[in-house]
Amino acid sequence: MPTTRSLAVSTKPHLLPTERRFASTAPQCGWAPKSPAALTVHGDKVPLGAFPWHGGLYRKSGRGAYDYVCGANLITPSVLVTAAHCLYVRDKLQPAGKFAVALGKLYSAWDREDGSGVIKSDVQRVIPHPLYRGVARKYSADIALLQLSRPAELGDTIFPICLGNSHDKAGKVQVVGWGDDQAALEELQSVSLSVRDFGDCVGSFSGSAHELPFITEDKLCSSRDKGLERPPGLAKGDSGSGAVQPFHGQWHLMGLVSVSLDNGKFYGFTDVRRYWGWIHQTYRDITPEFNGTLLI
Questions:
Q1: How many alpha carbons lie under 13 Å from residue 259 in its C-beta half-sphere?
Q2: Average pLDDT of the residues in 203-215
Q3: Alpha carbons 16 and 157: distance in angstroms, whole number
């Protein structure tokens, strides 16, 4: 991730249409039967299937290898959402053919054996938000969609996340990831971070003056909990990973890891709720056979 830097209660998460093929009594998104009963604060390893929407975004290198780049979040069997800056190299958008996605993985290495449930797919389309301009706009609109070349088969270890429509100002979010590519965690880990009121976050920011503008209005602001000596679980390679929250037995995607500020004391998550309309319209554009509307 770049390093310059009242929950309105609802029981009806935003749900994309391709998830409706499940039985009406079953959760259609945000289902994670192996998720931890309590949110972890210090960065713990998680079992396979604890966060089944989490995917790894990899970039193909010239030597035929796959380098881990960012996290991503499955929202339908064929579409993931991630941070837009993950798709750029030196401010240049990379073509879809440069990327691949792995789902159902516990280990970060592309070739590491994870079991029979792993699905690997080329990326057919990369769609950054049209207003994204990187550092020129302080990483606002840092959100993008990835369309897979083939839909994923859903199950216990691969399942879409609900799109959140609310945010607890004084609550916690859980973030899962492998960390930085230079010192990546071998196994998937998760950590709980506090989400703060935007005004309070800006008012208490103690970093350098040039970093403050990177807390853009489309960000959820999170801070490292007091007593923690280091920012557990969040590093450059965690960009695009989801900040998620459980609600009535289902997990909701609230934000995407975007920027780290003040030496890792503050984090900015792209607020997914602000881009729900764009996600919906873009999904319609890339799925011409769909002529309905999203379930609310």
A1: 26
A2: 79
A3: 19
DSSP string, 216-277: -TTEEEEEPPTT-SS-TT-SGGGTT-EEEEEETTEEEEEEEEEEEETTTTEEEEEEGGGGHH
Q: Which amino acid is at 38?
A: A
Nearest-angstrom CA–CA distance, 30 and 237: 23
> In terms of residues, how long is the chain?
296
C-alpha–C-alpha distance, residues 238 and 258, integer Å = 9
Helix H or strand E encompassing 281 = helix 276-286
Q: Which of 110-124, 153-167, 223-237, 240-254 has the lowest mean pLDDT?
A: 223-237
Phi, psi of 248 (to 5 degrees): 50, 45
Alpha carbon distance 31, 46 (integer Å): 16
pLDDT mean over 210-237 = 70
Cα separation of 52 and 66, whole Å?
21
CA distance 182 to 190: 19
**Confidence category of residue 170, pLDDT binned at 50, 70, 90:** very low
Instruction: Reply yes or no on whether the pLDDT at 21 is more than 50.
Output: no
- Which contacts of 64-68 are long-range, i.e. CB under 8 A and separated by 24 or more positions? 65/110, 66/100, 66/110, 66/111, 67/110, 67/181, 68/108, 68/109, 68/110, 68/178, 68/181, 68/184, 68/237
Give how far Cα 290 sits from Cα of 18, 29, 49, 80, 239, Å. 9, 19, 29, 17, 30
